[in-house]
C-alpha cells in the first residue's frame, strides 16, 4: 500500500445501495419475517408458554360462542318448531276449515298451516293402544277439525309480532273454538340466548384484551433483551419502521399460532362432546347434531387473533420507540 | 462538504465539550482530529453523525444545516455516514457476516449483492474466511476491523472514525489507516479522531488539534 498524496475532486460515488424501492421493500419484509421466525424458534419455552396463554384465552369465547350457536340452531330446528294449535268449532265443515287455513297462510306472521281433519285425528287416536276400545264405544266422532300453525320464526323474537296480539286475532275468527300456544318456551329461550349473547360478547372483549396484553408483554420483554441491538441499528441508520418490523411479525406469529392452537383445543373439546350429545338427542327423538367450527369461523378466529397480535406488538414497540426517541437524538 | 460554524457543545451535565469551533472540510478531504483525552474529539464526530446536537452554532453538510433535518430524515442521513466507534458496538448474537451485512439489510439490499459487498469488505479489512465466526471469538483488533467493515460496506460518502486503531498493534494500525486513505481516494470525506501522533504524522494529512476547554 502507498500513501496517497494527490488531492482530487470527489468523483460521483455510488451511494444508492438498492436497485428499486419495491425490491428493497420486499427484501426488508423477507428478512424481518425470517428473523422473527427464528426468534420464536430459538426461544421454544417462552414461545410455547405465550402461545398456550393466547390459545386458552381465545378458546373460551370460541367455545361459548359455539355453545350459543348450537342452542340457537336447536330452537330453529324444524322438528322443534313452535306451533299454535287452533281447535275449530264442531259446526265447522271440512271445506270451511280448509278455506280458513288458506286464508291464514296468507298472513305475514304465519309460515305455514296444516289442516288435521277430525277423521285424521280419529285415525291417529286409534293407533294409540288403549284408546281404540274407548273410541269404539262412541257413535259419533267427538274430535274437531284442527289447524296447526307455524309462526314465522324470524318474527317471533322481534317487536313487530306480539304473541298475545296474534292469539287475540286468531281467537276472533268465528270458526275458532279454542287455541293452544306452544310458543312461549321458545320465546323465553330466545330471551335467555340474547342475554347469553351479550355475555359472550363481554367475555370475548375481556379475553381479547388479555391476548393483547400477553402479546404486548412478550414483545416488551423481547425489546428489553434487544435494546443494544436496537440502539446500534439506529446508529447506523435504521428507521423506526425497520426496527418495528420484526416485532410486528413476531406479534403476528404469536397471534396466528395461538389462534391455531385454540382451534385445536376447541376441536378436541367438541370431539369429546359429540357422542354424548348425539345420544341425548336420540333420546328426545331429535336429529340434532352438534355443529362445530366451519371454514368461515376458522378464518375469522385466525384473522382476529393475528390482528390482536399486531396491535399488541405495535403498542409495545411504539411505547419503546416513543420513550427512546429523545435518548438517541 | 462539512462545515462547523461557531459550534459549541455543552452536555446536560454542564460539561462544555466544544467551544466556538469553526472548521471547513472539502468534499473528498481526509483530516485527522487530535488532542488530549477529553478535548472533544468524540463529541465533534458525534455532531457530524447527529448523535448529538450542538448547543450553539450549526453544522452544515453539503451546505445544508443539520438542524434543519427532521426526525424522519435522520436515519436516511446516517446511512450516508460510516461511523467507526471507539467500542465497535457489534451484535454478539450474530455472525461476523450478519454484523457487516446490517447496513445493507437496513437499506433492503438483495441477498447476492449483500454477499458480494460483505465479502469485499471482509477482504478490505483482512478478515476473509471469518464470516461465520461470532464476535466473542474475535480479538479486540479483529472486532475493531469488523466494525470498520460494517462502516464501509455501504460505501458511505462520509467516514467518521473515533480512535479506530486504539486496540490494534502498530502494523495493523498503519494498514487500517491506509484502508481509510484508499476509501478517501475513492471520493469519501474522512474524519479520523486519534491521539496516536506518530501515526498521524506519517499519514501526511491535514491535522486539526483540539484544545481542552477549561
Ligand atoms: N455524554 C456525555 N455527557 C456528559 N459529558 C460528556 C459526555 N460525553 C463527553 N463528555 C465530556 O465532554 C468532554 C469531551 O469529551 P469527548 O468528546 O469524549 O473527548 P475525547 O473524545 O477527545 O476524549 C469531556 O470532558 C467529557 O467528560
Ligand atoms: Mg473520545
UniProtKB/TrEMBL annotation, chain A:
Pfam families noted in UniProt:
FtsX (PF02687), FtsX_ECD (PF18075)
Source organism, top-level taxon: Bacteria
**A Gene Ontology cellular-component term:** plasma membrane
Q: Topology versus the membrane, per the UniProt entry? A: Multi-pass membrane protein
Where does it localize? Cell inner membrane
Mainly resides where?
membrane
> In this protein, which residues make up the domain named ABC3 transporter permease C-terminal?
202-323
GO BP field = cell division
> Which UniProt keywords are given for this protein, alphabetically ordered?
Cell cycle, Cell division, Cell inner membrane, Cell membrane, Membrane, Transmembrane, Transmembrane helix
TM annotation in the entry: 45-68, 199-219, 252-274, 295-317
List each copy of the FtsX extracellular domain by range: 83-178
InterPro entries reported in the protein's UniProt record: ABC3_permease_C (IPR003838), FtsX (IPR004513), FtsX_ECD (IPR040690), FtsX_proteobact-type (IPR047590)
What family classification does the UniProt entry report for this protein? Belongs to the ABC-4 integral membrane protein family. FtsX subfamily.
Xref: PANTHER family: CELL DIVISION PROTEIN FTSX
Q: What binding partners and quaternary form does the record give?
A: Forms a membrane-associated complex with FtsE.
Give the protein's function.
Part of the ABC transporter FtsEX involved in cellular division.
> Know the name of this protein?
Cell division protein FtsX
Q: Which species is this UniProt entry from?
A: Thiothrix fructosivorans
From TrEMBL, chain B:
Tell whether Transmembrane is among the UniProt keywords. no
Residues in ABC transporter domain copies: 2-213
Q: What is its main location?
A: membrane
UniProt entry keywords in alphabetical sequence: ATP-binding, Cell cycle, Cell division, Cell membrane, Membrane, Nucleotide-binding
Q: Name one GO molecular function term.
A: transmembrane transporter activity
Which branch of life, at top level?
Answer: Bacteria
What are the GO BP annotations of this UniProt entry? cell division
Topology versus the membrane, per the UniProt entry?
A: Peripheral membrane protein
**Which InterPro entries does this chain map to?**
AAA+_ATPase, ABC_transporter-like_ATP-bd, ABC_transporter-like_CS, ABC_transpr_LolD-like, Cell_div_FtsE, P-loop_NTPase
Kindly give the Pfam families that the UniProt entry links to this protein: ABC_tran
Spell out the subcellular localization from the entry.
Answer: Cell inner membrane; Cell membrane
GO cellular component terms, semicolon-separated:
plasma membrane
Which residues fall in a coiled-coil region? Answer: none
Q: What does this protein do?
A: Part of the ABC transporter FtsEX involved in cellular division. Important for assembly or stability of the septal ring.
Q: Which family does it belong to?
A: Belongs to the ABC transporter superfamily.
Q: How does it assemble?
A: Homodimer. Forms a membrane-associated complex with FtsX.
What NCBIfam families does the record tag this protein with? FtsE
- Name listed for the protein in its UniProt record: Cell division ATP-binding protein FtsE
Q: Which organism is it from?
A: Thiothrix fructosivorans
Amino acid at each position: 500500500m502507498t500513501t496517497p498524496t494527490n488531492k482530487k475532486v470527489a468523483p460521483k460515488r455510488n451511494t444508492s445501495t438498492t436497485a428499486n424501492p419495491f425490491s428493497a421493500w420486499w427484501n426488508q419484509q423477507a428478512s424481518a419475517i425470517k428473523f422473527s421466525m427464528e426468534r420464536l424458534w430459538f426461544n421454544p419455552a417462552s414461545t410455547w408458554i405465550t402461545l398456550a396463554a393466547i390459545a386458552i384465552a381465545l378458546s373460551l369465547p370460541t367455545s361459548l360462542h359455539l355453545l350459543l350457536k348450537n342452542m340457537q340452531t336447536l330452537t330453529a330446528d324444524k322438528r322443534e318448531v313452535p306451533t299454535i294449535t287452533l281447535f275449530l268449532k264442531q259446526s265447522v265443515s271440512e271445506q270451511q276449515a280448509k278455506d280458513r287455513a288458506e286464508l291464514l297462510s296468507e298472513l305475514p306472521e304465519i309460515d305455514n298451516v296444516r289442516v288435521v281433519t277430525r277423521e285424521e285425528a280419529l285415525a291417529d287416536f286409534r293407533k294409540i293402544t288403549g284408546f281404540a276400545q274407548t273410541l269404539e264405544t262412541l257413535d259419533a266422532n267427538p274430535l274437531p277439525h284442527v289447524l296447526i300453525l307455524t309462526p314465522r320464526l324470524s318474527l317471533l323474537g322481534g317487536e313487530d309480532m306480539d304473541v298475545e296480539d296474534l292469539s287475540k286475532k286468531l281467537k276472533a275468527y268465528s270458526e275458532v273454538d279454542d287455541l293452544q300456544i306452544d310458543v312461549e318456551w321458545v320465546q323465553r329461550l330466545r330471551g335467555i340466548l340474547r342475554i347469553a349473547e351479550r355475555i359472550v360478547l363481554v367475555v370475548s372483549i375481556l379475553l381479547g384484551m388479555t391476548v393483547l396484553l400477553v402479546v404486548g408483554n412478550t414483545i416488551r420483554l423481547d425489546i428489553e433483551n434487544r435494546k443494544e441491538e436496537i440502539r446500534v441499528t439506529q446508529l447506523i441508520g435504521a428507521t423506526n419502521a425497520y426496527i418495528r418490523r420484526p416485532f410486528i411479525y413476531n406479534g403476528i406469529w404469536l397471534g396466528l399460532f395461538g389462534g391455531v392452537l385454540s382451534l385445536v383445543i376447541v376441536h378436541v373439546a367438541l370431539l369429546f362432546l359429540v357422542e354424548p350429545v348425539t345420544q341425548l338427542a336420540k333420546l328426545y327423538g331429535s336429529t340434532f347434531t352438534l355443529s362445530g367450527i366451519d371454514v368461515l369461523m376458522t378464518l375469522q378466529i385466525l384473522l382476529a387473533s393475528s390482528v390482536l397480535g399486531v396491535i399488541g406488538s405495535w403498542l409495545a414497540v411504539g411505547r419503546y420507540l416513543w420513550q427512546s426517541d429523545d435518548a438517541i437524538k | 462538504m462539512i462545515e462547523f460554524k461557531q459550534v459549541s457543545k455543552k452536555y446536560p451535565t454542564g460539561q462544555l465539550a466544544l467551544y466556538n469551533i469553526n472548521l471547513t472540510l472539502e468534499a473528498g478531504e481526509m483530516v485527522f482530529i487530535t488532542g488530549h483525552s477529553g478535548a472533544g474529539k468524540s463529541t465533534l464526530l458525534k455532531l457530524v453523525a447527529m448523535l448529538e446536537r450542538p448547543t450553539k452554532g450549526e453544522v452544515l453538510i453539503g451546505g445544508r444545516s443539520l438542524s434543519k433535518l427532521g426526525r424522519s430524515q435522520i436515519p436516511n442521513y446516517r446511512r450516508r455516514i460510516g461511523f467507526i466507534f471507539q467500542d465497535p458496538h457489534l451484535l454478539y448474537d450474530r455472525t461476523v457476516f450478519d454484523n457487516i451485512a446490517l447496513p445493507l439489510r437496513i437499506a433492503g439490499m438483495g441477498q447476492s449483492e449483500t454477499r458480494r459487498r460483505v465479502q469485499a469488505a471482509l477482504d478490505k479489512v483482512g478478515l476473509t474466511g471469518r464470516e461465520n465466526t461470532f464476535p466473542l471469538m474475535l480479538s479486540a483488533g479483529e472486532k475493531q476491523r469488523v466494525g470498520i467493515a460494517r462502516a464501509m460496506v455501504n460505501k458511505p460518502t462520509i467516514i467518521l472514525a473515533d480512535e479506530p486503531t486504539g486496540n490494534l498493534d502498530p502494523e495493523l494500525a498503519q494498514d487500517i489507516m491506509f484502508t481509510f486513505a484508499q476509501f478517501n481516494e475513492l471520493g469519501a470525506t474522512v474524519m479520523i479522531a486519534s491521539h496516536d501522533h506518530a501515526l498521524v504524522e506519517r499519514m501526511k494529512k491535514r491535522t486539526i488539534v483540539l484544545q481542552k476547554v477549561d
